[in-house]
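ok so for the tutorial part 2 we go from a plain amino acid sequence to predicted structure tokens. step 1 is just haveing the sequence, like this:
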Amino acid sequence: MQGRMAEADGRIRLCFLSYRHLSRLARSVIEEYEDRAEIEVIDESFEAALAIARARERSGSIDAFISAGANASFLRGSLATPVAVIKVTGYDTLLAMLKAREITKRVAVVNYRQTVPELDQVRDLLRIEVAQKAYRTPGEAQEAVRELAAQGYPVVIGSSIVCESAEREGLASILSYSLSSVRQGIDDALELGRVARLEAARYAQLNGVLQSLDEAVLAVDRHHRIVALNTPMERLLGGSRPELLGERLDSYDQELSLLDTLESGQPERGRVIRVARRDWILGRTPIRERGQITGAVLTLHDARSIREADTSLRTQKRREKSPTARYSFADLKGSSPALLRARDTARRFAATDITVLLSGESGTGKELFAQAIHSASRRADRPFVAVNCSAFPETLLESELFGYEEGAFSGSRRGGKPGLFEAAHTGTLFLDEIGDMAPALQTRLLRALQEREVVRLGGVAPIPVDVRIIAATHQPLDILIQERRFRSDLYYRINILRLQIPPLRERAEDVEELARTFLVRCLRRLGSELDEGAFAALLPRFLAYGWPGNVRELENMCERLAVLLAGGGDGEIAAFSPEVLAQDCPELFAPAERDHQIAHAGDWRERLDQVLAETGGHRQETARRLGISRATLWRHLQAMGRDGTESETFHETGLVAP
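step 2 — the prediction. this is what the tokens look like for a chain of 658 residues:
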């Protein structure tokens, strides 16, 4: 209660701990400090004094302690609260020796830790015999007094513990401390207590701040004692705040030590440690005041929270600007048995995170299926990133997929660039036309799929990624493996769940619905509506055609027909004749048997030769009819030994490539 009153009226709260001789001397001057301090005097030392001091420390009722000699050193090494030390001055010793000379000419002086060489000069001046001894522990003090008694010294000068030992030996004793020394000790304690209060207020404010943080945080003073911590750190260290405050941090897990930070003054960030069977991201920061290091702060971020925050941040950024899937299973138009089977299989695949390989001819809607699978999966609200592996040169595709660090190559973006794997983190990465990927790049892709991490070009640090892979190809990968153009281990890595997308010729029942959907959409975009009579006239042609380019070709054909039907764009359907239609849409008038043969050509080389012959070697038209890009067609020709010059096929057919 008195301590709280002293705190309320601004007085410093002190506790004087010593043997009775020094305590008695201290009581004689306490009244002089009543207006500035509340001073409690206790006649105890060492273990008993420490127990009392710790109790006062835990209750927060004391700003500073006062003691002397070995007792002061013992308390200083065991308490977080400051301890003021009453020191023996040369003047004190001279006064004590003058008192002793009145009793005897043989005087013994026992000091804490060391003797005083200057006493030899005083001895000659005072014409007395002086013996000196030093002690460090109470036992050594008693032994020193016992030896002096045996040597016949009747008076001993020293600290309280020395005086008590002398009295037990029947010797006269004189306390080596003066009132002046006691007053100086109290003045020092007042200053220490004032500073301690300021620090306590600062640490209380710091504790208040720390309690608002989710991270586990603590602060230590320059002596590596814990002065502030929050609840998460209490749980981590396994103790309460009253138990932990004042304890040295290095008495706990050495991984948490701040001694190096206190010594070097260098902060540390981003180190991963494992404490209490959990991973933490550690931070160490020195505390400086007026250029001096006065403490340090330890921060532990839960690695799980970091990962969750990273996922949340990436997700939020992607929602703002990253690619997403636009199509769902509702956009897969058609009711043919072949389509329904494929759609049902795709729905089952969507319920898993397993890699999917979509195979089928170009133009069958493989990306639409990939987007539908993503949209029905647990990753639906995450990114959907698509890349056509045949649309980029090898080096450019590598940087697109894996990203690069700043300076990785000439012309690289400042600060580097994340790759598509990183952009698709937590979502789906669609690798279209994976069969056209260069073998060297296939090796990097295989490692990324196996390790679930990528390394940017020019970088060394692996970046973990959580990505579902959906791959697609129109090529027979098993044949490419035999030709050593596709890695078998990569094939087995992506060929886990396989879905064959049916070509349009196997979905004849869907042609009418798809054609109507495409025409209506295209005409509305042009400001017109579908004329049922015109559609009825076109439908037999649609049904008779083999559609080697599949749904993509049908959609493109409808775009062309919509322009013809829309006429001048005034909303009126234009009249057209079979002659005009045959001129603008010659595919619809091609012999059905030939279309059938093209569509069912099982051997890729034979099919390619056949279409090249039909188009007169015209590559753009050949690529269009096959439903592939010109770049893909060029790769096929190169792989087959047709590098763009007059190859064997052109010689045999008499055709020259444009």
